[in-house]
């Protein structure tokens, strides 16, 4: 059995190396979409049409000449704080997490930070369906899915964000996890469990 495990480990590592070699010398296509959290109205299960047009229409233009939809790709995404300052954002999210009336919605991991100065709010990844994941972070989706839930707290502080989206080929799959971990270690986001 040990031999079989060793063979599978080597095969997995070889496949991972090949996936990274395929992208390492390419320039990273990315898109930045600005997000004004005051425009996130009617939070809950259904994504409002006005948010679809405002935010998600530009998301689908990332590859205008590509026949593959953005939602089929593995993606990394980074929420960058534009305003207000990180401490105010951190305090607002902390208050939301501690609010007993918000307990029914699952939230992204909150960690205690003594002096929150990072302009990076959150870093995440998906194997596919970036649109669905971002909608959940905005506060539109099942209450049990852990996410930022921006529509429930970020409006109050007029949070302005830039969402950096880095799409990769769908084949990257699980190999996107170490990329997220590396970014999180380097950029130290205010919210999230990656260390």
From TrEMBL:
Domain of life: Bacteria
Protein name: GIY-YIG nuclease family protein
Organism: Shiella aurantiaca
């Amino acid at each position: 059995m040990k031999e079989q495990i060793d063979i599978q480990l080597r095969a997995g590592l070889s496949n991972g190396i090949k996936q990274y070699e395929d992208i390492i010398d390419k320039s990273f296509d990315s898109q930045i979409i600005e997000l004004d959290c005051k425009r996130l109205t009617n939070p809950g299960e259904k994504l409002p049409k006005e948010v679809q047009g405002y935010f998600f229409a530009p998301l689908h233009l990332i590859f205008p000449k590509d026949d593959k939809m953005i939602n089929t790709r593995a993606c990394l995404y980074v929420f960058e704080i534009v305003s207000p300052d990180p401490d105010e954002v951190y305090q607002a999210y902390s208050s939301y997490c501690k609010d007993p009336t918000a307990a029914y919605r699952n939230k992204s991991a909150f960690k205690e930070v003594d002096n929150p100065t990072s302009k990076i709010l959150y870093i995440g990844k998906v194997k596919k369906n970036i649109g669905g994941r971002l909608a959940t972070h905005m506060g539109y989706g099942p209450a049990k899915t852990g996410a930022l839930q921006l529509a429930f707290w970020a409006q109050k502080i007029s949070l302005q964000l830039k969402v950096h989206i880095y799409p990769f080929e769908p084949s990257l799959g699980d190999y996107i996890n170490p990329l997220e971990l590396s970014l999180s270690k380097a950029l130290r986001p205010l919210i999230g469990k990656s260390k």
